Fold each of these.
Amino acid sequence: MFNPEILVELANTRMPYGKYKGIRLCHIPEPYLVWYHGKGFPTGKLGMQLATLYEIKLNGLEYLLTPLIKK
């Protein structure tokens, strides 16, 4: 069963390291996610979130995350 909280978390979690440290995962540019896809996503929860975000952006569905961003 799908848990909608996954999308809320995806819209509000910030990248913990690297070039985009501090940026919300949903705002990470698609080319960076494509690079990760080719390199291999990290293990654990962050890897799952980045892989999910890659699929969302690949299919043009990032607009679904916009209303979930907490101010």
Amino acid sequence: MKLMALLAFALSLFGVDIGGSSFVTRTVVDGAEVLHSRATSEAGSARFECVRSASGQCHYTVYPRTCEADDCEPLKRFALANGDSRQVPGLHRFQLCVSADGDTPGPDCEPAQPIATR
């Protein structure tokens, strides 16, 4: 077991991701489910599934995992209808923001702040 952990750590130093990640996003407002989404990532490919969204669509914004809030562009942006799924090859080490509306969140998944003008 220790040998496997050491091997996985050594490979991660060279950018090889042998593990997988799972993302489940559920938003409940006043007792009603507004959003339910699932995503999995394994071996450089990611699968996104919009289980249910009150708006009829799940809006996905995918950022690099090492994203800096000041200087970060999304890797991908797309929407899926209720019940749809999408396989995206070539995605490695990412962070995910999902919402029921089409707003583009920042890498912290918070709504983008308007630029103050004077």
Amino acid sequence: MRARLVVFPIKGRKWCFSRSVDPFAAQAPSGVTPTTVRGLWKKITSESKPVNANAELLVDFISDKMNKAWMGLEIAPEGSMKNKIHGLGLKLLARVKPSEIFLKSISKEVTSVQVSYPPSLGPRLVRRRLRHIAMSGAILHKKYLIGSVTLLPLTTAFTVLPLPNIPFFWVLFRTYSHWRALQGSEKLLKLLSNHSNPQTDDADENNSKNNKPEQDAQSPTCVFLPSEELYKLLREASEEGLDEETIVEICKLFHLNKIDVLKYRNLV
């Protein structure tokens, strides 16, 4: 599966990294993740798979349960306890950094990426910034993953209270989120690794003398395509960065999540 990534400066030195939303991918049922604990145990024990494959299956199972529980909170009656928990969850989710959301979007199903960017930046600079966010994300989310796993046993102590164990479920979600962001970071680094591309790799400066066309030199796992439409929308940006109207136009053009893109502009 090819993912379309969009990269552009949004405010000063702040850049936006986002993935185009595929409406059909979200609707396609996986049919692989078990729905019950018994089914999960049967799938793990009946098939000889490596440990990391079973870990992925367990993570997918927990993710599916969390998604169903979250949907239940969304449809809760106004003013109920579940509705209040949903409101608290939205406030906590608003604090998640957009770079984490971006890295999580690079799932294991992605086999190649197409990067759209304004031609004024150049593919080499765009690739450097993508590598930077992937490398820093791998270090950061590995550290936070270890911290979240350490906190999980501590938050189970709140189960003695006659209230939903919000700290446990929040730490469980953060553990899952950091795991996915770490996997996405490593996946993106792998897709960007291309030492035979003179357009985007400093290690092969000698190869650039061959004057090969950019399309021929591109790796099949990573293609950089400049977008004139994006460049036209960015030309009138002020020193304060892109206004919300321009951001909305970019989101419509590339099918981006407006809330995630706005987070980049408002990031301190």
